[in-house]
Write a structure and sequence with these properties.
Elements lengths: L3 E8 L8 E8 L6 E11 L1 H8 L12 E2 L3 E9 L11 E5 L7 E5 L3 E3 L6 H21 L7 E4 L5 H12 L3 E6 L5 H5 L5 E4 L5 H8 L5 E6 L6 H5 L2 E9 L13 H4 L4 E3 L10 H17 L8 E4 L3 H9 L7 E4 L1
Helix pairs in contact: 2-3, 2-8
């Protein structure tokens, strides 16, 4: 084996899309417990924007330069010592930091064989979102038939999976979108009702839809723009799950706002729910089973060349994307 020269996107400081530099890196031979893969597709997530900006999030502090991204899929190129269960040429997927590169090293413990029902592209686009939806819908709050569910950013890649899966579990799904143009996408991916939160009082509309009963659980990836109104349309003992802050961090929460209806609020992160290899494989298996059952239809809505990562981030931040997008090395 020998080190590989490969294309990659790095940042040398935090900032806007302009800090994304397309160039080359050297990927060394895989060490003990490592696998070197050549990627066919790289997932694009809003969490990458948080990391690029240096915002709060689950990202551990790293020295510059930093390779962004945390999910992708490709083919095993070589194996390090002590690696078992994988073979050269095998299609694989992963969730692990450092994805924006044509080739990379991944710890074997964080790598999974390509799940049945997914392609390399759909795995790169949806695996992280699928595992996030798995713990949000099954472990953090177990959605049951008859539950009323509110999904913010329902037309996005994460929102589409959450909405479709929640509906398949028997929930009534109310989605919010940030523009009228995204309404159709949300309706076609599981939502029973869709509200444009920029144009309408979504909290009042949710209460109208539910006969003033409110929703049992709200999944919020938007943050500052919708968080406080969301509290107003919750059912008694409802749970607000803030798993993203695309519009900005939520600050200044008065706990008395939760008191009258005994509301619960949490701010989780995926890595806490797939910390062990068993949890990782279990989460992937549950998501893949939902794909094979038809509850979820994984899709790639838009593709950007790896060299176009700046444009991809601009589109993502400008909320000009719908569904799941990928970078193609």
């Amino acid at each position: 084996m020998a080190a590989l020269r490969t294309s990659a996107v790095l940042i040398h400081r935090h900032g806007g899309p302009e800090v994304l530099d397309y160039g080359e890196i050297e990927v060394p031979d895989p060490g003990p417990g490592e696998v070197r893969i050549v990627q066919q597709a790289i997932g694009l997530n809003f969490a990458d924007v948080y990391q690029r900006r240096g915002s709060h999030g689950p990202h551990a502090a790293q020295p510059f330069p930093i390779i962004l991204g945390s999910q992708g899929a490709g083919v095993v190129e070589s194996l390090g010592p002590q690696v078992q269960g994988f073979s050269v040429g095998q299609p694989v997927a992963y969730v692990h930091p450092g994805a924006y590169a044509q080739a990379r090293l991944v710890p074997a413990a964080r790598l999974v064989p390509l799940p049945e029902g997914l392609t390399l592209e759909t795995a790169a686009a949806t695996l992280l979102r699928g595992m996030t939806a798995e713990y949000l819908l099954h472990r953090l709050f177990a959605v049951q038939r008859g539950h009323r569910v509110l999904v913010h950013a329902a037309a996005g890649g994460m929102g589409q999976i959450l909405s479709a899966w929640a509906r398949a579990l028997g929930a009534e799904v109310i989605g919010t979108v940030g523009s009228e143009a995204k309404r159709a996408a949300a309706l076609s991916h599981g939502c029973h009702h869709v509200i444009d939160y920029r144009q309408d009082d979504f909290a009042q509309q949710v209460l109208d839809i539910t006969g003033a009963a409110g929703v049992h659980v709200a999944y919020d990836a938007v943050g500052r723009d919708v968080f406080f109104p969301t509290l107003d349309c919750m059912a008694t003992r409802g749970v607000v799950i803030s798993y993203g802050t695309a519009s900005g961090d939520v600050e200044g929460v008065d706990l008395q706002r939760l008191h009258a209806k005994s509301l619960s609020v949490c701010r989780p992160t995926l890595k806490s729910f797939i910390a062990s290899t068993d949890e990782l494989h279990g989460s992937v298996a549950t998501f893949a089973a939902a794909v094979r059952s038809g509850a979820i239809t994984p899709e790639v809505s838009q593709r950007f060349a790896l060299a176009e990562t700046r444009a991809a981030h601009e589109a993502l931040e400008g909320r000009r994307t719908t569904g799941a997008c990928i970078l193609v090395p």
